[in-house]
Write a structure and sequence with these properties.
This protein has eight helices and no strands. It is mostly helical.
Length: about 190
């Protein structure tokens, strides 16, 4: 179960993100969302009042935890996309407070997606076993980028790589099923 949240509880940046994902996987979605909200509010109030470096680092780590949670909750079967609108405001606020750390977290996931696309294309784009189109978790991640970062900024450090990746998906991947068509249409509707 999730650790109890008291007024003195602090998010521990030293814990591995996988520890939090393991805790999240056994808890109910409503308790997870309440937990995320409480952590965001408590840590931000501590940072505003004391401006401690420890809480600042914790919040920067928490950005990565939120991104990993978005990818986790949308990759399991059945995927839970209802959690995204509740997480976006916290992620947007943290990304505004710590834009460099947030951009690093987002770009690292985009690099991983690019590597997966390259691996799928190297196996052969027409083979049914090669994964070239983004799955639900990747599409949810790209949707999150479109809600956290300004998509009208053509020089944004997160949006520009996301646009290039989306162009690679649309230009290099071959349509093999209706699922691929749906992924492509969703990509076209994002930015």
């Amino acid at each position: 179960a999730l650790p109890p949240l008291t007024s003195s509880w602090r998010f521990r940046a030293t814990r591995a993100r996988t520890t939090y994902l393991r805790l999240f996987s056994v808890s109910a979605l409503c308790s997870i969302l309440a937990w995320i909200k409480t952590i965001s509010i408590n840590c931000r109030s501590v940072v505003e009042t004391t401006a401690t470096i420890i809480c600042s680092n914790s919040l920067q780590t928490f950005i990565g935890v939120l991104i990993d949670y978005i990818l986790h909750v949308t990759s399991v079967t059945p995927a839970s996309f209802s959690a995204l609108p509740a997480i976006i405001p916290h992620l947007h606020s943290l990304s505004g407070s710590y834009p460099i750390a947030a951009a690093d977290h987002f770009i690292s996931k985009l690099r991983l997606m690019q590597k997966n696309l390259t691996r799928g294309l190297s196996k052969g784009p027409t083979l049914s076993t090669s994964k070239t189109w983004p799955g639900p978790s990747e599409l949810a991640f790209l949707w999150t980028i479109s809600h956290v970062w300004p998509t009208s900024d053509m020089n944004n450090h997160v949006v520009s790589p996301a646009r290039l990746l989306m162009g690679s998906y649309l230009g290099l991947s071959r349509i093999r099923s209706i699922k691929d068509i749906c992924s492509g249409l969703f990509l076209c509707s994002l930015f």
